Amino acid sequence: MRILDRYLAGAVIGGTLLTLGVLLPLLGFFLLATELEQVGVGGYRFQDALMFSLYSLPRYAYQVFPIATLIGALLGLGALANRSELVAMRAAGISVARITGSGLMGGVLLALGAMLIGEVAAPVADQHGLEIKRAALSGEAAQRTTAGFWAVDQGAYINIREILSGTSLHDIFIYQADNAAGTLIATHAAGARYHDGHWVLEDISRSRVSQAGVQVERLPNADWSSLLSPGILEVVVVDPRILPVWGLWKYISFMTINAQDASNYEVIFWGRLVYPLLTLSMVLVAIPILIGSARTRGAGVRAFFAILVGILYYVVSRLFSYMALLYGLSPLAAALAPPLLFITAALLLLQRVG
């Protein structure tokens, strides 16, 4: 039975990996075709567009993983059905529940792999891709490090510890040297916002260091003349929706503290937490389809049916997301409802065919 469990789980995993091997090159091609529209802008070259597209693939792999799991389970287990292996298993006394459990073992491993891609690999790869694109498009002397974003702007050295959006910055350090006067000016601002075509620094502490000593002044706010436009910074900042779960929670906390509506990000946050359940639900949906039509449908029909189910899931999940945003439905309920509905439908179908 352990051999049988590994065999069925391997069929689910193998079919999913094969599906990803087909889908990801297609997604990469379309993404590269989109990026080619910007080739020639600034210093953005074809190789930059290619590298940006490659670095974006982990994020797209994470996004299509559930539908890839459904297609992969249908194709992998469908190959067993075409060879009458599923029929033989049932004739030997193997229950539908045992076959389902074995397939879910593969689904658990796939869910863990998807979480590693989405929470570890994708954010890092996205950041590298954005750095390549930013450097090529802007041509600025700038770099993103573990200590934040660094740039040289009109002779001043700027360190921005946190870029919340292209128009909202947090924890900013500006260092300027006046060689003629022999003065070093170090400025720290708690935040900055882009308003009416210029930057406004907030909660400022400015130190002037000279041979005469150190002079410190504090200002509630002041205009900041900088060549760093929101367009450049938006290339640097990662969309909060593709941050890892802990980064997304931090962003939601910041918006809540600042009395901003974070409901959209809360729906995404809870959706990320229930993501493994979504992957398992796709495997669970595939089992009754195969049991009910062991040898009557080909791989093409199964793949087409999987795509329809994927589209249906997308429509249902968006419907609940809109209900959370427009009618105050709990974000947790909006995230849990779609996979639970599909799991319920799959269990009813399993009861019918079993």
Q: What share of residues are in beta strands? A: 15-25%
**N/C terminus separation:** 19 Å
Shape: elongated
The low-confidence parts are none
Determine Rg (CA atoms, Å).
26 Å
- Please state the structural category: alpha+beta
Number of strands: 7
Mean residue pLDDT: 80
Helix percentage:
55-70%
Side-by-side strand order of the widest sheet: 1-2-3-4-5-6-7
The major pleated sheet works out as: 7 strands, antiparallel
Tally the helices. 10
Can you put this structure into words, describing what you see?
The protein is 63% helix and 19% strand. It has 354 residues and is α+β, with helices and mostly antiparallel strands. It has a seven-stranded antiparallel beta sheet. It is elongated, with a radius of gyration of 26 Å. The two termini are 19 Å apart. The mean pLDDT is 80.
Question: Can you give keywords for this protein?
Answer:
354 residues; alpha+beta; seven-stranded antiparallel β-sheet
Layout of strands and helices, then pairs:
Blueprint: H1 2-35, H2 46-82, H3 85-91, H4 96-138, E1 142-145, E2 148-153, E3 156-165, E4 168-178, E5 183-195, E6 198-210, E7 213-224, H5 230-236, H6 245-257, H7 263-273, H8 275-292, H9 299-327, H10 331-353
Antiparallel strand pairs: 1-2, 2-3, 3-4, 4-5, 5-6, 6-7
Entry summary:
The protein has 354 residues and is α+β, with helices and mostly antiparallel strands. 63% of the residues lie in helices and 19% in strands.
